[in-house]
Amino acid sequence: MMDELRELYQEVILDHGKNPRNFRHPDDANREAKGENPMCGDRFMVYLKLKDGIVEDVAFQGRGCAISTASASMMTEVIKGKTEAEAKALFETFHDLCTKDDHDHGHHGPVDEDAMERLMVLSGVRQFPVRVKCATLAWHAMNAAIEGEDKASSE
Amino acid sequence: MDTQITNTLAGYDVERVRADFPILSRTVHERKGKPGKSLVYLDSAASAQKPRQVIDAMTRFLEEDYSNIHRGVHFLSQTATDQFEEARRKVARFLNAPSERNIVFTRSATEAVNLVAHSYGRTFLSEGDEIIVSVMEHHANIVPWQLLQMDKGIRIRVVPVDEHGVLDLNAYEDLLSDRTKLVAMTHCSNVLGTVTPARIIARMAHERGVPVLFDGSQAAVHGVVDVQDIDADFYIMTGHKLYGPTGTGVLYGKVDLLKKMPPYQGGGDMIESVSFEGTTFKAPPARFEAGTPAITEVIGLGVALDYMEKLGREAIAAHEHDLLQYATQQLSQIDGLRVYGTAPGKGPIISFTLEGVHPHDLGTIVDQYGVAVRVGRHCAEPLMERFGVGATARASFALYNTRAEADALVESVIAVKEFFGA
Q1: Which domain, by its residues, includes A46?
Q2: Where do the structural domains in chain B lie, given as residue ranges?
Q3: What is the superkingdom listed in this entry's lineage (chain A) (predicted)?
Q4: Which CATH number belongs to the domain containing residue A112 in this structure?
């Protein structure tokens, strides 16, 4: 198997893709947004429980490829407990990770470095530009939910 | 040995055919110090590759004969006009149309459907009227009618398919009524490969005086289409799937229908005379060809049709059918693989899913082996819903594909399965 593929589909991704974490609809969620990729039909609902500016709970449901599912699953793990501002900064930083070379990464406020470390496994999508949408789909939905919108399209 | 024999099936020399397509000898995914993979192009249903003959003809035209057409008395204008109009005659012969007056050039099949929806639809349909389509239409044969629906308050009725993807003719008969004003149906599904019984569809509609439009974007590529035999009122195809250039679509229409349709777009080349008191329009097909068309591309399309005729359209169909059967049989041996579309007499298009693997992941991985397939919804979302599937992978076979390429597809899909432990 080619190196680039191993880089894209690391074990962690295959694991999260097969056994997504927080794959549920929390009863007490007070925000939700849909993320949809019209190209492939992937569709996620991201649910947030926001309280006093803190993401108390985050979960998702829907259908997607291994990359989009794994990314959504890992997102729920790193976003939980963050402030809205921290969650948005993680989104922006993660977006850079998927689309830009390291030296072009912008500063989007203080980010959880440990979280970014874990998300590094998804940086393989940079070699596969058409798959960037997959990796960022749930993140766009999460960002939309924080902003109080009900829908995000992966750009 | 085996491939040698089958590649010359019934005298069809696929290796000679492949030599006509420069792109087929390239490799993909070259990396530092590592050779690339041979291209295995199984996405011709999205767009077909072009033979040298088409590329050369377009280059030659641009280098030697290029000019605008239908105007000007100078030498080049006349030469270019002759070649453009010769392409129209070639298209007419390709479809067995009674005359080149039946042939309107558009930019795409999509534009051809929009032309009919806009010109015929807005003139002859009104609130409460119904258009019948099938559930397996490409979005290009759905959305233009929905725009008409928004504008005119018409209704769109949908003929279902069974689990094999066969059109339900009984349901079609039930849907036909006094309210039906047009039937707009695919002649070959771009997802399932199902070939619809065009002659029967047309006859049943004509018994009620209803005209029929066929979307032949796929059908015209894989079989012999005779618009007079089918008795189509409108027939649509697209040049880039017929081994011709992009920017070329074809609308065949019966002359009496075209004659009573108003222009679709206004501009140069479609008028008899223009004044601010009133403008008169040319007869079809010129009436529907406002503005400078894709001159070079249309001439290229004519050469592409020549190319298909020279190989023999029945020979092409037989070759593709062999590939379809072989590939279906080989793929079906893979555990967890499901093929969507098993209608008898289908075209060489195989949509499939692999249990436990999303088509998008499958597409990325087989691509690393050089195998180009389409993944996604194939611009046919209602059909995806019908089969309860978010997306599929689609391998489509063309006149230049080989059994060895079908083997490469199968091997790469097996690699995907191993990769995901599916």
Answers
A1: 3-147
A2: 2-47+313-420, 54-310
A3: Bacteria
A4: 3.90.1010.10
pTM value is 0.92
Structure tokens at A124: 């393989």
Question: For residue A152, is it within any domain?
Answer: no
Q: In 3D, which of B195, B218, B193, B216 has the Cα closest to residue B48? A: B218
B27 touches chain A (CB under 8 A): no
Kindly give, in sequence order, each residue whose CB lies less than 8 Å from that of residue B349, ignoring residues fewer than 6 positions away. B45, B188, B189, B190, B191, B192, B193, B218, B324, B341, B394, B395, B396, B397
- A26 in any annotated domain: yes
The structure tokens 């019984």 sit at B197
The answer to whether A40 contacts B365, with C-beta atoms less than 8 Å apart, is: no
CATH 3.40.47.10: does it fit domain B2-47+313-420?
no
Name the one residue in this structure whose structure tokens are 């005086």: B209
Structural domains of chain A, count: 1
Tokens of B64: 């030697």
| B390 CA: distance to closest CA in chain A (Å) | 6
| CATH 3.40.50.720 assigned to B54-310 | no
> What are the average pLDDT values for consecutive 10-residue runs of chain B, which has 422 residues?
47 95 95 89 98 98 96 90 98 98 98 98 97 97 97 97 98 98 98 98 98 98 97 98 98 97 91 88 94 97 98 97 98 97 98 95 95 93 91 97 98 94 73
Is residue A34, in this structure, part of any structural domain at all?
yes
Closest Cβ opposite residue A9 in set B377, B390, B419: B419
Partners of B358 on chain A (C-beta within 8 Å) are: 42, 64-66, 69
List the single residue in A4, A14, A64 with the smallest CB-CB distance to B420: A14
